[in-house]
């Protein structure tokens, strides 16, 4: 699929009003249904936190980096859960990927996010990238490029709240809150209490293509 076609497809699938081009944002279609509510999101994050601790043998050298926008509060929540178990501070921050996206010349101008690297840095550490929705894999590719410019981690893992499928690149999450089969004619909307006032994951129809009715 060429870049132009991909950008057009994304604009049709994700619809307007989303704060994130992969379907996350404060507004959902009127016919959207809830696939994860607040308590279910909390349980999924608790499970991911324990899986991180198990796979990293206590997480002594783990750094969590959230991908703006909703990956950042998710990384913060995971860090607090790990701290509650281990009784020590877990380095966390944010990793802006805006200038590393492969659709910059095709999409409208985007506001820059914030890259906030903990004082420990990332060199020699196990970095867990955190995001809300995994779709094509292109956001993760951009995040890896951005991470490469700030240091050289020992290893990189990926934690995702929702994996909706339809990968365009060979990217697979290490930690997944929910695998959600979707069609390309659906949109996934993640709402979190930090930016949106409440927690929910919604599945609804995408915006119709130009010229289509209803």
From TrEMBL:
Q: Which InterPro entries match?
A: PRTase-like (IPR029057), PRTase_dom (IPR000836), PyrR (IPR023050), PyrR_bifunctional (IPR050137)
Care to name a GO molecular-function term for this sequence?
uracil phosphoribosyltransferase activity
Classification via Pfam families: Pribosyltran
UniProt-listed Enzyme Commission number(s): 2.4.2.9
- Motif (PRPP-binding) on chain: 127-139
What are the GO BP annotations of this UniProt entry? regulation of DNA-templated transcription
| Entry-linked CDD domains | PRTases_typeI
Q: What does this gene product do?
A: Also displays a weak uracil phosphoribosyltransferase activity which is not physiologically significant. Regulates the transcription of the pyrimidine nucleotide (pyr) operon in response to exogenous pyrimidines.
Family membership noted in the UniProt record: Belongs to the purine/pyrimidine phosphoribosyltransferase family. PyrR subfamily.
In Swiss-Prot or TrEMBL terms, this protein is called: Bifunctional protein PyrR
Q: Which organism is it from?
A: Streptomonospora alba
Q: Which gene encodes it?
A: pyrR
